[in-house]
Amino acid sequence: MVSGVVLIGTVYSVVYNTYLDTSNPLLTHLPHPLGNTHRWARKANPLNVYFIKKAWGWTSAAFLLAWGTGTPSTRTTVRLSRWLAASATWLVFTAWFFGPALIERIVLASGGECVLSLPSGEHLSLPAEYCHAHAAVSPATHPALFEASSSFVLPNEWHAIPRLRKGHDVSGHIFILTLSTLLLAQQLAPSFSLTRWSVPHTVAVWATAALIAIWLFASGTTSVYFHSPGEKITGYLLGLAGFALAQIPGYLLISTPRKRLHSS
Question: InterPro entries annotated for this entry (predicted)?
Answer without folding.
Answer: FIT
